[in-house]
Design brief:
The chain has eight helices and eight strands, in the order βαβαβαβαβαβαβαβα. The chain has 238 residues and is an alpha/beta fold. Strand 5, helix 5 and strand 6 form a beta-alpha-beta unit. Helix 1 packs parallel to helix 2, helix 3 packs parallel to helix 4 and helix 5 packs parallel to helix 6. The chain is globular, with a radius of gyration of 17 Å. 43% of the residues are buried.
Length: 238
């Protein structure tokens, strides 16, 4: 069973004291996640003030450190538009990266996503397609970019299970006969996280878990760490 560990997302220490923010914290979290069974690491790069960033100095520093800590595991980062809303500046920041992640996630609903995909491909980095809706998928398809993505992230944002599953179905309906080589990860966020993990297992999809997706274990208790969430995912899916 493949699990991608999503270590921090946009969360802060105010959300949970063990959210990994610094380079040192990310290294420890990545190591522990892999020891718990994670097959890939995903995180949001932070500057020295803990703010999400795409600036090369911080991408280089944190990607280098995490890749060195888990040398046999693919390491990916986010390119979320909120980190740099100006698409021209975002592209320039990406082009300045020197220490490269193995993959990045690109959200299909964000304006200019196709330019981000092209900039990432030019650097020979793998692309995960972030699909929060059928329209996000259609955006990839209409621009002939779906084939360039090695992994698809079906990630409904709805917090009610029925609505989240409706989004999953709408995406799946558009994916018929359009998966020549991609793997698919299905994950929920907060209220739908553990229910969708079970759905992903049932459907034969890969899984994602970590503090980005939830702060709570399946019982509803606050989880101690990313490692604990990964162990719980393996246990729940046994």
């Amino acid at each position: 069973m493949f699990i991608e560990a999503a270590l921090n997302g946009s969360r802060s220490k105010a959300d949970h004291p063990n959210i990994p923010i610094t380079t040192e914290e990310l290294v420890v979290a990545a190591k522990n996640a892999v020891l718990a069974g994670a097959g890939a690491i995903h995180f949001h790069v932070r500057d020295h003030n803990g703010k999400e960033t795409l600036e090369a100095a911080f991408v280089n520093e944190q990607v280098k450190a995490v890749k060195a800590a888990v040398p046999d595991i693919p390491v990916g980062i986010s390119t979320g538009a909120w980190m740099e809303p100006d698409i021209s500046k975002r592209l320039e920041l990406i082009r300045q990266w020197e220490i490269l992640p193995n993959f990045v996630s690109v959200n299909g609903h964000e304006p200019g996503f196709e330019q981000v995909v092209q900039a990432i491909l030019e650097k020979q980095i793998g692309v995960e397609a972030g699909l929060n809706s059928a329209q996000a998928l259609e955006n990839f398809i209409s621009r002939d970019l779906l084939k360039e993505c090695f992994r698809l992230l079906i990630e409904p944002e709805e917090q009610e299970q029925h609505a989240a599953l409706a989004t999953v179905k709408a995406i799946e309906d558009k994916l018929t006969d359009k998966l020549p080589h991609q793997t698919v990860v299905l994950h929920g966020v907060d209220n739908t996280c553990w229910e969708l993990l079970e759905v992903a297992k049932y459907k034969g999809y890969d899984l994602r878990i970590g503090f980005e997706d939830t702060l709570h274990d399946p019982s509803g208790a606050v989880a101690e760490s990313n490692e604990a969430l990964i162990k719980a995912a393996f246990h729940q899916s046994a």
